[in-house]
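I am going through a labmate's work and have reached the protein record below. What it holds is a sequence and that sequence's fold in token form. Please read both lines and tell me whether the tokens look consistent with the sequence. Do not assume that whoever made the record got everything right. Thanks in advance; the entry in question is below.
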Amino acid sequence: MTGLDSGAEPVAQEPQTGRQAHAGRRNFMRKVFFAGGATAVATMGGAGAWAALAADETGATASADPSGTPTGTPSGAPTGGPGAGGPGNQSITEDFFGLTTDGKKIDDLFTVHSEGVATAPVIAAANAFLAGLSATQRSSTQFTVQSTEWRLWSNVDAYDRQGVSIADLSDEQQALGKALLKSALSADGLETTERIRRINQAAGEAIDNTDSFNEEAFYYTVLGTPSATEPWGFQFDGHHLVINYFVLGGQVVMSPCFWGSEPTEIDIDGTTVSVCKEEVKASLAFINSLTEAQRTVAIESTTKSNESMKAGAFADNTVQEYTGLRGNALTGAQKLKLLGIVEAFTGRAKADVAKARLAEVRAHLDDTYVTWTGGIADDSAFYVRVHSPVVWVEVDCQAPGPLAGAYGASQGSGATQMHVHSVIRTPNGNDYGKELLRQHYLTSPHHR
């Protein structure tokens, strides 16, 4: 696949490293997905949107005829548990549809309009980052905004990722990458990304495996060309840390985002470094604000399995009915605590992005459901899902995994707050800003 030219003068070309040598496999996966996704694009977007979306850099020929479907889609998708994101679940063979309750999207939830988000800083930072890359680096880092690269992310350490890793960047390029993250994230969000990476490195050192677990195997990808008017975005992808950031004018969709760590706290140079505590604390504060009768409805089971997440990596089209306690059964104070769970995630974006996102969530608060599994004590392992037409949050305390030895645990020995996975998504088709992208192609005169 050929990346998009940013228009900047390339710096000296650099040879590919082992962490960059995934192009052949990635090209195949993109072609497989595009072949399988053509029909849905035509059906959802009409002929004009089909022609625009089909102009992917895979080399497929765009057609205004919705019946012009590429052929040759391989069969036999890998197996794996829903949301597992594990080695047996690292492929995409279905069209993007988004999270739904019954396989049918709710229309008119998302519209293209300005939310007053200041996107100029992130546009400038993304352009500077791209300009600082060599031509070779840029060709493996920048893809079209409609590319399937959006969906090829995983929280698993051993996953072969696209883009350019921190390890492949010079000090100057690393600074440009960090500036991009800083332009998009709040101080808390940036600090969270840094702590996840630092803990990953420290845990890798503790088990003598920094080849797999370190602070540099995190990858940048840019989708589209940074613009004040046209859709684009970026992705930051690595072990326990994935940020998808879509931009269209004055709107931002920051989902799916995956935040996790094992362990969630560790000593680094004599200081205890912790992460993912906000979502755990907010979740426990909510469940303990409920009456006994309310908890009876919210809590599905007091027994926590080793892994409960349903919409992690490679689970973009999860179908999950509403379960648990509905928001209209909550008091005002309890609703604020419910919002507190969501705010632990939205607060990792810049303040204007977080404000717009939270307003969207508040508008559907009465139709928001909360499901709980596990204990409710301060140190209990638990799983919570917050689910509404416009937001999906999961916080999952999991069993010790490959980094168990870093904190004296035994792998698979029972769920614990020392290993947390969490994700925030936008149901009904707007993860990766895809519903906004669809509407943009349908309504923009230059795409008709």
